[in-house]
Structure formats: C-alpha cells, structure tokens
Amino acid sequence: MTEPIIPPYCPPKPWLQREPWYPVDAPLKGELPRTRARYRAVIEQLEVTAAKRYARTTKDTWCNIFVWDVTRAMGAEIPHWVDVATGPPAGVGKGKELRVDGIHAWLAEHGSVYGWRKGLRFEAELAAEQGCPTVVLDPKEHIAMVVSVAGATGIRITQAGAHNFVDGTLERAWPSSMLSKLEYFTHP
Questions:
Q1: Quick check: pTM over 0.70?
Q2: Domain for residue 26, yes or no?
Q3: Domain membership flag for residue 24
Q4: Domain count along the chain
C-alpha cells in the first residue's frame, strides 16, 4: 500500500488577510516588459478562489477589490479610493470608495491619464495575451480581469463575484443578454 501524498502546509499570506477596503502589497509585481506568464502569476498569487478577502458575503461581492488588487500589483492601478474632484487615487478614507459604476466613470473620465484605454473585445484578448492588465465590465454591476489561457479559445476571465474562479468564460459571469453591453479597457 502506498502512502497518501500530503501537500505541504501553506500558511495564510498575511498580506492577503487585510480588510477589503485596505490596499494589499502583493509581493509579486507586474514588471516591464509585460508577459502573459508574469500577468498570470500576479493574478494567481491573490488566490481569488481561496482568499477570505474576496469571499462573497450575504450582501457583498468583491469584484472591485480583486480588480484593485490585481491592477495595483501590475503597476496599473484602478483605484478603490479616489479624490472626487480631480480623479487621482486617494488614501483609505480620504476620498470616495468606488464600486463598479464608479470604476466605470473613473475609467471613462480619468483612466486615460493613468494609461487605461477603452478598446474592442478582440483588442482586450490580444492585450491579455501580451500580459497587459485588461478588464471587462458592465457599467453598473460587475468587473473582471481578462486573462489569456494557453489552448483556450475566446476571451477568458478571472473574477471575484457571485462565484470566484480563475478561468472562465464571459457567459459564466454574465447572462447572454449582457454580452453585447460589456466594455473593455486595457493598460499597456
């Protein structure tokens, strides 16, 4: 009889145990030049399916926080706190907290100043393949990271939300009636 394989104990990552409204300082950062492998590694270190930080509660989901954490680690922050008057990221409690509708407004009004640009679906897919931070959102309710998965066809996403997952389709996150209303933003 063979011994069962027991995975090594992996203690919780203290930097990932913060309350959602506080920023995390992920150890692995997105560096230039961007690569698909680095982008995936930055996302995977956040453990979206296991981290309590992104776990759905009875009244809240944390898609905006997950996107904040990924983009911050990639050096292309979509902020959670902003100065309402001028748009730059603000410290915790020193500005307005953004939910998805606020993120959409920020991307539309201030995103280009911080390197974000609106694009088409195929551009988002290509940008993610090159390791560029890329998001997809419906302007009112949900946002996810566009990722590239070797061998997969079509756009793939990683998300926190009603269901947290590392690799899924747009249809897993949105009803088919919403797909034509989705918007894509990329950061080089």
A1: yes
A2: no
A3: no
A4: 1
Packing angle between helix 100-109 and helix 63-73, nearest 10 degrees? 40
- pLDDT by residue for the chain (188 residues), tens only, comes to 555 555 555 666 777 778 889 999 999 999 889 999 999 999 999 999 999 999 999 999 999 999 999 999 999 999 999 998 888 999 999 999 999 999 999 999 999 999 999 999 999 999 999 999 999 999 999 999 999 888 888 899 999 999 999 999 999 999 999 999 999 999 99
Residue 11 counted as domain residue: no
Indicate which CATH number applies to the domain containing 102.
Answer: 3.90.1720.10
Residue 16 falls within a domain, yes or no? no
Q: Which domain holds residue 164?
A: 32-186
Neighbours of 120 (CB within 10 A): 11
